[in-house]
Amino acid sequence: MVECVGVTRTFTRGGSSGWFTRGDAAAETVTAVADVSVAITPGELVGLAGPSGSGKSTLLHLLAGLDTPTSGTVTLAGVETSSVSSRRRTRLRLANVGIVFQHFHLLPSLSARGNVAAPLIETGRSKRERRRRAEALLEQVGLGDRVQHKPGELSGGEQQRVAVARALATDPALVIADEPTGELDTETGAQVLNLLAEVATDRAVVVASHDQQALDRTTRLLRLRDGRVTTVEG
Fold this sequence. Notes:
Protein name: Putative ABC transporter ATP-binding protein
CATH superfamily: P-loop containing nucleotide triphosphate hydrolases
Strand content: 25-35%
CATH class: Alpha Beta
CATH architecture: 3-Layer(aba) Sandwich
Helix content: 25-40%
Organism: Halobellus salinus
GO molecular function: ATP binding; ATP hydrolysis activity; transmembrane transporter activity
Keywords: ATP-binding, Nucleotide-binding, Transport
Largest sheet: 6 strands, mixed
């Protein structure tokens, strides 16, 4: 489903103003991901573990096509992400990737149902079909009675579950989850993990987490430090 070969991603930071300035000798290059090679296929629930700053979120963004590598290749659904335009990458993500962002990124003006249905607008489904799909997914994550509530009316854990439901809306082949249980209590977190494990029976799921409960559910675990994969378990 997705493969990285020799992937490195660097960023420039620093300088006298705190940002890069052309010719500013104080600016420095930071390597967030360094020479990572990994292939993830349907049926896998792959975990990414490591301390803050180890490169987990950057690697997730590369896998999802939200970013492109400085060197190396990321191939998503048979397409090398660096070889196409940002518009083509957007279409590629819509067709193949569902993302659970660490900080939710829900649209505050929309209801839970509207947020989950939003990714379906570009798929050509009717409004009735979008509503039915969104309501079914919200029921699946235990929010069947909260479909009309806006994010500001939901707890952090409820917003997280809306984000999970939204990631599944288009029935993607690849699901990317950044700390999917970070705002959840143990019981609710277990429910979300059960759902992701069920989803992983016929698609690829990648979860970055500090939560040992989440990491214990993975079929393969990659440990990162300083942008490099140090160990592979499973």
